Amino acid sequence: MSSRLPDPGADERAHSDRLLTRLREEIAAHGPMPFSQYMERCLYAPGLGYYSAGKTKFGEAGDFITAPELGDLFARCVVNATYPVIEMLGESADFLELGGGSGAFAEAALKAFAANGTVPRRYYILEPSADLRERQRDRLAAALPSELFAHVLWLDRPPEQDWQGVLFANEVIDALPTTRFVMRDGEVYEEHVVLDGEGRLMRVDRPADALVSGAVRQVERDLEAEFPSGYRSEILPQLPYWIQAIAGSLTAGLMMFIDYGYVRREYYLPERNDGTLRAYHRHRSHNDPLYFPGLNDLTASVDFTALAEAGNVAGFGVAGYMPQAQFLLGSGLQDIFTASYESAADEATRYDLAQQVKKLTLPDQMGERFQVMLFARGMDVLPLPADVLEADRGDRL
Questions:
Q1: Nearest to 168, CA basis, from 234, 113, 226
Q2: Who contacts 157 (Cβ-Cβ below 8 Å, separation ≥6)?
Q3: Where are the transmembrane segments (predicted)?
Q4: Confidence label for 2 from pLDDT (cuts 50, 70 and 90)
Q5: CB-based contacts of 170, cutoff 8 Å, min separation 6
Q6: Which of 18, 107, 235, 293 has the most crowded CB, counting CB atoms within 10 A?
Q7: What does DSSP assign to residue 90?
């Protein structure tokens, strides 16, 4: 597997070795490490995790490309769908973006809000990575007029005070540290990371604790079927607590999650018997999460049924669920594209716009693989575009 991946340079190897040393020390001191904890360390360990270090993650020079990196069409559609909510809630309405990435979404979204004449009181970016926060700040300070940049504030934890507005998260749930479980003769086991006799990382299965076992049994009850022996997949037993933590103070407004995933009955198909966990390194996907820790993005698809349940537990109602293509088209993609295409300065720009639309909407690109889930709370009327409401496939959950 690893032979087909780009060979890390000396600096990358040294960085991975530093994280590996810390992982070895922690395992030696505390014993087998649940995979979810290993994933958390690999992605978020201060100064060493994938999202916490200085390496470029997004775009052609990184390891993957997200929708905002393609251009501004995606963000402009999101703003088309959400600015009426900001407008309805009035001058106290805020916009909170979870995980700001390169800052591309915030730049395009703030410009779109300004063009629509309704700018949120505050544009919050909840970004735990100090490195990414600095990159975002530099980008937005250079790209936005000072009066627009003044709306932006960075957070390192969710708001504690009650607030109203819109919470937006693109490709965030897939990066939550996931639990890996496997069935053995009717019992639930959990995947752990340990050291072999030569100090190398390896994965082993150990009996699951009550939280993990209970979460798996709940999925079985919902599916009305038991997982067969040997079936391995992912589950997020902490998801309800996470939603409450990041959105508990949102008293009125909208939450929007965009990510790749499935409804539960598709997530746990019999043939998907090794789960959805993937690692990404320089635009190449592979299935070894132990390969050079800290240099790979680790990710698992989203069980949108579980996300809906978690939102309900936190006091939100599901306001819509649909493929990304239907959401973008319902949010005015065609009109935005046409206006941009007609005003484009050259053929290269027009080609780029056409490529954006293809990647965002074609079924074999992002159009069907990515899903959009909307939640609402504290609003008598939810002013979403009529075409978005009509595209709702919530009955599939």
A1: 113
A2: 126
A3: 241-263
A4: very low
A5: 66, 67, 68, 99, 101, 105, 258, 259
A6: 293
A7: -
Per DSSP, the chain holds a count of helices (H) and strands (E) of 15, 16
Residue 338 in contact with residue 391, Cβ under 8 Å? Answer: no
Structure tokens at 298: 């680790």
3-state secondary structure of 336: helix
Query: Would the pLDDT of 55 be above 80?
Result: no
Q: Give which of 50, 24, 59, 56 is closest to 295, Cα–Cα.
A: 50
What pTM, to 2 d.p., does this model score?
Answer: 0.94
Q: Which two tokens stand for residue 240?
A: 């309800």
Confidence of residue 206 (pLDDT cuts 50, 70, 90): very high
Ramachandran bin of 118, using left for φ above 0, alpha for ψ from -120 to 50, beta for the remaining angles: beta
Which two structure tokens, joined as six digits, stand for 18? 């530093």
Question: Contact, 331 vs 78, CB < 8 A?
Answer: yes
Phi-psi region of 285 (alpha: psi -120 to 50; beta: other; left: phi over 0): beta
Q: Which residue has the tokens 């775009």?
A: 59
CA nearest neighbour of 249 among 377, 127, 120, 129: 377
Chain position carrying tokens 């990414």? 132
Q: Is the pLDDT of residue 27 over 50?
A: yes
Report residue 193 as tokens: 């990371």
Q: Output Rg (C-alpha) for the chain, integer angstroms.
A: 21
Gap between the Cα atoms of 238 and 314, Å rounded = 13
